[in-house]
Write a structure and sequence with these properties.
Layout lengths: L10 E6 L4 H9 L1 H5 L3 E6 L2 H10 L6 E5 L7 H12 L7 E7 L3 H9 L4 E5 L3 H38 L3 E5 L5 E4 L1 H6 L17 H7 L2 E4 L12 H6 L6 E8 L5 E12 L5 E10 L1 H50 L6 H32 L8 E4 H15 L5 E5 L6 E4 L1 H17 L5 E11 L2 E10 L6 H6 L21 H11 L3 E6 L5 E8 L1
Parallel strand pairs: 1-2, 1-3, 3-4, 4-5, 13-15
Antiparallel strand pairs: 6-7, 6-11, 8-9, 9-10, 10-11, 12-14, 15-16, 16-18, 17-18
Helix pairs in contact: 3-4, 10-11, 11-15, 12-13, 13-15
Length: 529
């Protein structure tokens, strides 16, 4: 007999036959191979007994040598059961069928059920040895190829697990086929929980297992399923990508993600999988936020620098006038007529009031910035307060404007800080007066109900110079003048409207503006009644 070269690897052969003589005969025939630890034979007397052994030790046997006709379970049924129970591992066990000579019908059935080869009774033991030798040789090649394939898969898994991005693969039925270590980490799972998500439907079942919520970045709103790149790739879209997705874990951790995906196609061009790369962009977001914070801080510092330069000029102008007029009044007082003295005194008073208003604006903004501004709310009649504000603006207006005041006498009362409401209205009306020349300023007051709550609307509409969209965007910013004019053509510190907005919001209201260049502006302040 020839010796099978198994590279000193002992082949495990399961012989399945109801003839007891084979247990004595086969060890005699293969005595040399058994002594050399090349072959080990194990015997079963029917298909069921063989099946139990194979299921109990699926990695133990190399060859199954089975008869077709046996009690309890025949060889054909055994082949079917092996395929059902062993699945992939069945490819690493080669079955050789023993059949009666000329029984081609059963041999054909056996081959269709996965048998590798067949021999016929009565045995030709040389033929049996040759068949076993050939089967083991092929099996060895298969196992080596299988080993190389498993090694390749292990290497690929190691490569994927070494990536700093999460990798997720799903099939056309949305079932998860693969996740790498980083993806498991991103979804907030332990590595041993990986098996709990393989085969789960993405994203619904994954989210139940991982107990996370997918949200639109910066909100609590659920991220639309149809927008998820891996599902879009599964529909044929090439390389969809998003960076507005967040994973919110139960303990409160928020993971911002950049996700890109691509479809995987077979040789026929059919999509068999979709793969997604999940990038945790927490550090990038933090860097962006820090960059924006620094830019805003620099912008604010620049605005404050300009504000201080403007403010020093604005304070200097009335202060210089007061000093100059006071000196004139002292030095030439006796030579001046009473009318001239009165005129100088009035100009000193006006400049003093203007200086005081500038200082008060600065103090108010300081309180607002530091959170020290307090409100003193009370009930008061709206109409008299509005009439008083209107009369004040008429006395201050220097541009020959016409003020139209529309306030119902029965508008009633409101509960607010009357001093701050008056301050806001003075700011809006003085602004309208400042930027309008020989035009019309309309001051409308109305009461309305919204969501079962009473509101008071104060609207100031002028026919002045108006503003561009860029100017409107800067209008309510602290330390910034809406006109941005370095010539200080219109004067002021640029604090009035920002103070008005802050006070309005502190009182539970809001302020809006509509404007076009050369067509005037409309400011609407709404406060709860």
């Amino acid at each position: 007999m020839s010796v099978v070269n198994r590279e000193k690897m002992e082949a495990k052969i399961l012989v399945v036959d109801d003839e007891p003589d084979l247990e004595d005969l086969i060890p005699q025939i293969f005595e040399q191979q058994i002594e050399n630890n090349e072959f080990e034979f194990v015997f079963a007397h029917n298909g069921q007994e063989a099946l139990d052994k194979l299921i109990a030790q699926p990695d133990y046997f190399d060859v199954v040598l089975t008869d077709i006709n046996m009690p309890e379970m025949d060889g054909l049924t055994l082949l079917e059961k092996l395929q059902e129970n062993l699945q992939e591992k069945f490819s690493l066990i080669k079955a050789v069928i023993i059949s009666a000579y000329g029984d081609m019908n059963n041999i054909r059935k056996a081959m269709n059920k996965g048998a590798f080869d067949f021999i016929t009774k009565p045995f030709d033991f040389d033929d049996l040895e040759l068949t076993i030798s050939k089967t083991l040789k092929v099996l060895q090649e298969i196992k080596e190829a299988w080993k190389r394939e498993r090694e390749t898969e292990r290497n690929l898994r190691n490569f994927l697990n070494a990536l700093p991005v999460g990798v997720l693969v799903i099939d056309p039925e949305h079932k998860i086929s693969y996740v790498n270590d980083e993806a498991v980490k991103i979804y907030g799972l332990e590595q041993q929980e990986r098996k709990n998500i393989i085969g789960k439907i993405f994203p619904e079942e994954l989210e139940k297992v991982a107990s996370h919520k997918r949200c639109q970045a910066g909100t609590e709103d659920s991220y639309p399923t149809k927008n998820m790149p891996i599902l879009r790739a599964l529909q044929g879209e090439e390389n969809p990508s998003v960076d507005d997705l967040e994973i919110r874990r139960p303990e409160g951790t928020v993971i911002p993600l950049e996700v890109s995906a691509t479809p995987i196609r077979n040789e026929e061009g059919e999509i068999t999988y979709a793969i997604a790369a999940l990038q945790d962009i927490t550090e990038r977001k933090q860097a962006e936020e820090e960059r924006i914070r620094r830019a805003e801080a620099e912008k604010a510092d620049h605005a404050k620098t300009i504000f201080l330069a403007n403010t020093s000029h604005e304070l200097k102008t009335p202060l210089t006038a007061i000093i100059s007029l006071s000196e004139t009044l002292q030095e030439a007082g006796e030579d001046l007529t009473p009318e001239q003295q009165s005129s100088l005194a009035q100009r000193i008073t006006n400049n003093g009031k203007f200086l005081l208003s500038l200082i008060l604006d600065i103090l108010d903004m300081s309180k607002i910035v530091e959170g020290r501004m307090e409100l003193d709310s009370e009930d008061f009649e709206i109409a008299p307060m509005v009439q008083e504000v209107g009369e004040n603006i008429k006395s201050y207006d220097k541009n020959n404007n016409t003020l139209i005041l529309n306030c119902p006498e029965a508008i009633g009362i409101m509960h607010a800080d009357i001093t701050r409401v008056r301050q806001c209205l003075n700011n809006l009306l003085s602004n309208a007066s400042k930027f309008t020349q020989q035009g019309t300023i309309t001051f409308d007051i109305s009461r309305y109900t919204e969501d079962s709550k009473d509101w008071i609307s104060f609207q100031v509409r002028d026919t002045g110079i108006g503003m561009t969209e860029e100017q409107i965007a800067k209008l309510f910013q602290r330390f910034t003048k809406g006109d941005g004019s370095p010539t200080r053509r219109y004067g002021g510190t640029g604090l009035g409207l920002s103070i008005t907005k802050e006070l309005c919001e502190m009182m539970g209201g809001n302020i809006s503006v509509e404007s076009e260049p050369s067509k005037g502006s409309t400011f609407t302040m709404r406060l709860p009644a």
